[in-house]
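Study this fold:
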Amino acid sequence: MFENAELGREVTLPENRTADPDWWKGAVIYQVYPRSFYDTNRDGIGDLNGVTERMDYIASLGVDAIWLSPFFTSPMKDFGYDISNFEDVDPMFGTLVDFDRMAAAAHERGLKIIIDLVISHTSDQHPWFKESRSSRDNAKADWFVWADAKPDGTPPTNWLSIFGGSAWEWDSRRRQYYMHNFLTSQPDLDFHNDEVHDAVLTAAKFWLDRGVDGFRLDTVNFYFHDKDLRDNPPLSAEEAPSTVEATNPYGFQKHIYDKSRPENLLFLEKLRALLDKYPGTTSVGEIGADGQAVELTASYTEADKRIHMAYSFDLLTPDHSASYIRQIVEAMNAGVSTGWASWALSNHDVKRVATRWGAGLDIEKYAPLTAALCASLRGTPCLYQGEELGLTQADVPFEKLQDPYGIRFWPDYQGRDGCRTPMPWSKAAPNAGFSDVEPWLPVAAEHLERAVLEQDQDEGSVLNRLRSFYVWRKNKAPLLKGDMSFIDSPGETLVFTRSYQGQTILCAFNLGDAPETISLPELRLQDLKAPGFEGSLVDAELTLNGLDAFFGVVNS
């Protein structure tokens, strides 16, 4: 328990926080995007009370933790990733009292709460930036990345913003440029300044004291820039990363000076030291790596030294062949050393996996299959809200778009709104039960048939198949913490083993829609009867129908 001075009451910390300090290894993390989850105050936008009211639903999924996207005070230019107060709740989402009630509801159900820590930048409305831009000699003058123009008035470097154009914006008050990796309204903090470290760690401590179980670290490799302000070298079209849209000039550079700097390792050690003062807490970093995912994951998640785990965008791409997935996962397993990866197939920034990978396939089979695959890889799986329903990418018309990224690069790239449309709770209710009034983004008509209430009543639905699989998985230690080794297999199949403390489980997936037979003469297998999957084993021959899987114990 601790005393909350602002509210004059005690807040209960989770009793089971220290029961297993490694609970996060292999835990299923469910990402909630609050704006689109459930609206309780009739403004068309989801809120924290909506998460509380739907907590039983989240618990019913069999997940272990909730990752809550930003709910902090913000002008909402980038929908909460532009923070103007790190230590409060935006009125759009509720109050600190609402947050405490939501966290308590989660902890009562055995769920952990992980919140976004967005500290690479602030909103231009944050008091820190307002002070910093007021002059060149104020107390926070060096808290953000400021630089003089070149002699011809152009920006200090050739660095580009992910959201298009230069990463530098002229400020007439200081007569200098400030750096922004994202929107011009999201100025970058200067992590070469130790006072900035203290300030953002104080913000982290504020939420740890409230009982959160950890942080998802937004753009964790963007904290530092090159102090000498060197230009990034060009990148050929052949070298352009698949994680950057072809319409975006950001992919024209090799980003070696504006992010992923070696100084970041020392700051991550400071952050880990703070987390270690709160036993049982965890951290998962988002790495925008442009080809360095393995290297950065290994160094950032070095055991007991820096953050606990990290995910990259390497499985959030259009390529979904079995050979590609094996290449990505095998490289991570070989290179991560003592570290730990996290895996996601969808999130609030990318096209939903049911559309990106599953176009033309039977979603009723494909969605449970890919979710089970993600939860069987060595690492910690994340499930984005709506994946458990098999939601496809919504087509949001231009006049309804909210995402500045999508508006900037329309029509070839339509932005992130299509994966952020409201959760459908009931086919028959107005706005699919998300809100009594018109929501901030339209409900996709094709999502109505996939609403929670409809699937809840169907034993064979995507929702119920995921629930059954996650519950079945919970006591399979090799699937949670085990080592991983691939076995060669034909076609669009993936076969690998997970081994932990003398027990080995074989996992086999057929990502294609045609049957496949896999010969495994060297293995003695016992079918584990994973719920929802029908792969059959006869002697040493494993038969998988299209979009099917098999799990079996390997006997010695």
About this structure: The CA atoms of residues 155 and 487 lie 52 Å apart.
